[in-house]
Amino acid sequence: MLNFKELKEIKGDASFRKFYRNKNDHSIVVYAKKEKIKNLLIYDSINKILIKNKILAPKLLNQNYRNNYIEVEDFGDNTLFKVLKHNKTNKEQIFRKILKTLSKLQLIKDKQVINFYGQKYKVLKYNNKTLLDEAKLFSEWYVPKKINKFKIRNFKKKYENQVKKLLLKLNLKNDTFVHRDFHVSNLMYVKNNIAVIDSQDALIGNKAYDLASLIDDVRFKTSNNFKNKILNNHFKNLKKNEINKFINDFEILSVLRNLKIIGIFMRLATRDNKKKYKKMVPYAWEMINYRMKKNRKLFGLKLILKSNFPKFIK
What is the pTM of this model? Predict the structure, then answer.
């Protein structure tokens, strides 16, 4: 068993995992006592699917599931977030390369794999119930902190009804491999290739979701002009009759994702005392406001948000 005192802890993410660098074995140790199945067993299962489909992902080197950790390949510290921060001139070129990786990801047909315990793991569907539950994170964690307590119950009811209506207005089928957190902080630059990490939440869902996650990423600010340029670049792969359907789903899912993120960031700040996440909330609102201007189907939700959060919804 590893002696964790001899390992260097790496700054982690928003989950219950801890990461350590094992220099002796050139590996990353992923430790998770909480949500262990998802963070260790499912994480490796999804990585196996990615690797099988010629997408660079952390290979399992060793597992000690009983003691709450696995060891995976070390890709270093060079995330595409860092690359883009230091290389602003080639931003569009880098995003084109990311879109190629996303296209490979979306071509994945494998939905099941044998995990390191010899059990079958099947990638689940990203259904409307899951999307609704995610959108509720906004009303559960952010809303009670921001509006009058006597208005909360009424707001939640109206908000959830609007979200349900929006989910019925999605056009595309739930038939595509979705990473669910596809953004530049979860992509590594490794020997001129892009590696995908943090994939334990992957599901089979809507083709527009990961693109919304990438383009309207709350952690990495880009201009609206740049966002539209990348979106239009992606349309080259679509037929004309698909483009309007795709735009509709992209805008709805972007808004719902960023509402979810506001809820998650407020939960991290209040429950887990990770205050830094609150700083990104205004930019999430900015993107919600921008996408709501473009899609008439979002008008009902916009009215509810505008009457309660006029500072953010113009």
Answer: 0.94
What is 80-308's CATH number, 3.90.1200.10, 3.40.1650.10, 3.40.50.1240, 3.40.50.1820?
3.90.1200.10
Where are the domains positioned within the chain?
4-73, 80-308
Yes or no: say if 98 and 184 are a contact pair by the CB < 8 Å rule: yes
Write the Ramachandran bin of 45: left for phi over 0, alpha for psi from -120 to 50, otherwise beta.
alpha
> pLDDT per residue over 6-61, tens digit each?
788 887 666 778 999 988 778 999 999 989 999 999 999 999 999 999 999 999 99
What is the Cβ-side half-sphere exposure of residue 263, based on CA atoms within 13 angstroms?
18
Q: How far apart are alpha carbons 134 and 141 in whole angstroms?
A: 11
Residue 10 dihedral angles phi and psi, to the nearest 5° = -100, 145
